[in-house]
């Protein structure tokens, strides 16, 4: 009996070290992830040429996003919400996504429709909040809005942005022709 107790006593620290060394480090890293949720305005006003160097605003916006995505580190979680001729929708939920597939989707976006910017901000805020809960509050959370600012409910925008920043999210804007 003493031999078994001694053997368990000697093996216990080794078993604990082995068990902890086999724990995958990915969940810890994922909790520290950077999260970038992009709202892409492809509404009807983005089809205009005004103040975009003789090119349609949608073309300039696509080029800006594609160039930007090439510089985002691969470990970032990305999500994409678009409003265009097909309506307002999430194209990619927030997560580690295939970058080339995302670029291909951005290239195929066509301008048209309304500008439900407030609703898109709120949907993006909810997606970031869900991710923040998954990461136990750790990590960084940014909402990037690409728009010409011609929102349907322009007067309500500050309250939607304030709600997002109150949740601890950084809100950045790439604006066209303010």
UniProtKB/TrEMBL annotation:
Residues 35-178 form the VWFA domain. InterPro entries: VWF_A, vWFA_dom_sf. Gene3D superfamilies: von Willebrand factor, type A domain. Residues 1-25 form the signal peptide. Keywords: Signal. The keyword GTP-binding does not apply. It holds the Pfam family VWA. The keyword Membrane does not apply. This is VWA domain-containing protein. It comes from candidate division CSSED10-310 bacterium.
